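Continued from yesterday's entry.
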Amino acid sequence: MSTTVVMTSRERAAAQAYVRLLGAVRAALAAPPGAAAPPPLLLTAPMAEADQALADAGLAGNEAELFGLVTGLHTAGTP
């Protein structure tokens, strides 16, 4: 049985910002062996965006609800 997660626009923005942050972290960690580590500044903007979006949605410190929204975002097929 599948459930549909109905999100507010702020919750959707927070979930999408989190997914973008994950993508940035994966890209930063995907450097080939022996390559210089990417500068930490590459993650500053996506981290700030995710933090602000979480605060705006009232999700700061509520990881369980955020992960539920991210799961709903992916099961709905929304990028």
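--- second protein ---
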Amino acid sequence: MTNLMVLKIAARNVFLHRMRTLVVGAILTFGAFLAVLGHSFVDGVSGGMENSTTQSITGDIQIYSENAKDKLSVFGNMDGSPTDVGHVGSFQTVEQELLKNPEIVSVVPMGTSFAQVSPGNILDHFLEKIRKSFKDPNHDLQDIESQKRRIRFLVQEIKKNLEGKFEEIGILSATEAAQAKVNLELLSRDAFWADFNDNAENKIEFMANKIAPLIFDDNMIFFNYVGTDPQMFKERFPQFEIVKGEMIPPGTRGFLFHDYFYENMVKHKVARRLDQIKKKMKDDKLTIAGSKEVQDQIKANVEQSAEVYLQLGPAETEKVSVKLNELLKSDEKDFRVLLKNYLNMADDNFQQRYDFFYKEIAPHIILYRVQIGDVLPLSAFTKGGTSTAVNIKVYGTFRFKSFENSPLAGNFSLMDLVSLRELYGFMTDERRAQNKEIEAEMGLADIGQDSIENLFAGPSDANAKPAVATAKNADSVDLNFKKRIMGSSYTQEELRNGVFLHAAIFLKDQSNMKAVIEQINETSKQNKLGIKAVSWQDAAGFIGQLTFMMKAILNIFIGISLMLAGLMIMNSLLMAAMNRKQEIGTMRAIGAHASFIYRLFFYETLFISLLFGGIGVVFGALVVMLIGKVGVPASGDVATFFFSGPRLYLHLNPMLIFVVIIVMVVIAILATQYPAWKAMKISPLQAMQKRE
């Protein structure tokens, strides 16, 4: 009997058992649809993550020390701690060897770690400002008087806020709390301010040491950073762009905040929340009345209104009060109450009050705790656990186009590699020069082994030689540590000859990544470079493994669906074989071979698999092409990183369709085996017995 005839009989049997066919077909359709759409989506996310990661921090390949204690993870460990990857000796030596490979375009040195800075509270800010004014030989006395009024007003507000609450301040002892009351009372008297100009420095120091610490806030800023060659970094990461300020000048030590971090962590708390509320109302279509999250932010602004009014001087307070009463159509005299009423916003007045904030209030407050142009006293811990600090100028902020609102892309700020080395505890040329200068100022002699031993010799040792020869009076020595970093420069030779923690490698063709990684590792062994290479995905750590996990979960789900479909096909065919014993036995009686019975069952299964699997594939392909045109909107800032932009556009892979069809055929073959084997065992005698 021909295959065509067998196929016709199989098709007839499929349509005769429509209910069974539809149930099995629905599962197959869903499985095929999910396979096409799901894999296209995961591939799209994988491509987006690759673009976001390689275009913001990792490059195509990362290299680091082959003796590293931990595996490189540029985003840190799951708990947020940095990985210990050691360091590599000379960047220039490594770069020269790697650039001999024609597949490598460039190598960008870098190192990632974290640091902290305390920019001071509001009183610290105003005290520093008036200190600078007094140091200016051409200072404006009228401006200084205005600053004094603002500081005096702020001190009065601090006193009001702490009235009756000194005992609640846990970090103050009873004695300290009592002294704080006395100090605040002293500053409330006219006598303290009467001779302020004649004794400005001492009085500023008194307030900085005794009054400013009474303002308790979470003013410490913690951040991750990448130290690199800023110019090379900008060139090799084309989506890099300056948002505020300017680029770090070539050969100059400097710092850039990521704009996302600057807006969400450095900006004034009240302004930051207002921005977030506006974004949620616009992008997420949330309302104040309908969102508990937004309501909590409104409540936080009201409760922390002191963050605003403590920064306003008497003149600014009076001016803003008039404007607020006009806006609210009230005649409230108490500015604190007035401000709280204003900050208690609703859906119908939010936009108006938001605009008012930036027009009338923001110009009078410190909108950012760190200003562009400030010199940051960064502190960090070296690999050995000791604390180190550098002063470094903030030149501006930057972002990566397309995913500028992503917290993952905004995870790193940027500084020059020479400053990173100093923060990390490595000796730099400038540090060596400063050490020699300090030794010279203090009159320190070179200490040899004999001198070190003499340090510990007993007083009875008549021949003991002092390790320090005629040191200068310590009081006359000005160490001037603050001049470190700030405004200093470095040479390209210093940058390229020093150590680095890891480096990004960019390729001509990313498809050759695996081969190039092997070549780099082989080059390292031959030339004793002490490095090893890993893909961007491995270097991204847990972030890079997300797509692998997504694919694994998707494939498990699809596999369960298809396995269920296969079992149902096998079960339905087995039941059909039992119900069709008479029919099958009769066919065997008139000469049908066992192979015919097998083909009959196989074609039935193949027909169902290809028909409904094909429907699922076509439907999935149509949805993928539709999404490829309109895109899937990113439902949050994190999604913009995974999508590498505000929308994810899917692309249909023809190979995926071919694979899904092959899987359908495999399911047909596997699901047919047992039912067909049972059917082939049916004999003509069984059919005759059934008929009787």
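Residues 445-487 have pLDDT under 50 and may be disordered. The radius of gyration is 37 Å. Will compare against the first tomorrow.
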